[in-house]
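Exercise 7b. Backbone tokens:
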């Protein structure tokens, strides 16, 4: 399908940025999925950390060396998808419930490369913004964040409750600041421009790579 072609093209472009010996952060989701076999096929000696159990399993199955999450203090490169990419670039991530580890990995990486198919760039971010809320005090957190709606389903592997901010996202910086001030919040899915070094968007087979 067009989506598969675009996800593969973006992933293949990002795989070309990875060099032997690198410490690589692997994101989570369907755009990262084709990246994993492509990285394995390079035969390069890599040390990877995964942002979810699903990614860890896929990477190990492909023959990549996956290290425990916190054994690597700094990463040379991290590659991940996004739900939405707005000018800045501001991202919304967390559709796959992995944004807490994804943000930690993005922040630990010297280079954070976002890979996306053509529908991800948007003129402005819109709800939902994924949240991970601490289970302790959940009721009081939800009372304060009146737009936060628990998503249901399994808790995050880190024990948090996945919820979604359904309110306005007109000013992502202001919303990120408000969410960061919430004691019961573990992480939110707004990724600020300071985290992102490269955006790789595929439209058909055409890849546009924007570096900051
Ligand atoms: O949940 C996540 O953060 C994913 O990385 C998401 O933002 C992108 O998932 P996709 O590549 O399946 O669209």
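Sequence design result:
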């Amino acid at each position: 399908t067009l989506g598969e072609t675009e996800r593969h093209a973006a992933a293949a472009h990002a795989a070309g940025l990875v060099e032997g010996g690198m410490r690589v952060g692997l994101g989570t989701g369907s755009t990262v999925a084709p990246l994993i076999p492509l990285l394995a096929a390079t035969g390069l000696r890599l040390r990877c950390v995964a942002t979810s159990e699903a990614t860890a399993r896929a990477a190990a199955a492909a023959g990549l060396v996956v290290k425990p999450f916190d054994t690597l203090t700094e990463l040379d490169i991290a590659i991940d998808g996004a739900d939405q990419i707005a000018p800045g670039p501001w991202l919304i991530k967390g559709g796959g419930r992995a944004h807490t580890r994804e943000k930690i990995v993005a922040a630990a990486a010297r280079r954070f490369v976002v890979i996306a198919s053509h529908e991800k760039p948007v003129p402005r971010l819109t709800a939902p913004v994924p949240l991970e809320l601490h289970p302790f005090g959940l009721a009081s957190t939800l009372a304060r964040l009146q737009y936060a709606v628990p998503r249901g389903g399994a808790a995050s592997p880190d024990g948090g409750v996945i919820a979604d901010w359904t309110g306005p996202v007109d000013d992502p910086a202001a919303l990120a600041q408000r969410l960061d001030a919430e004691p019961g919040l573990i992480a939110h899915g707004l990724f600020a421009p300071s985290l992102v070094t490269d955006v790789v968007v595929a439209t058909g087979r055409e890849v546009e790579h924007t570096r900051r």
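Instructor comment: The chain has a mean pLDDT of 97. The CA atoms of residues 46 and 76 lie 10 Å apart.
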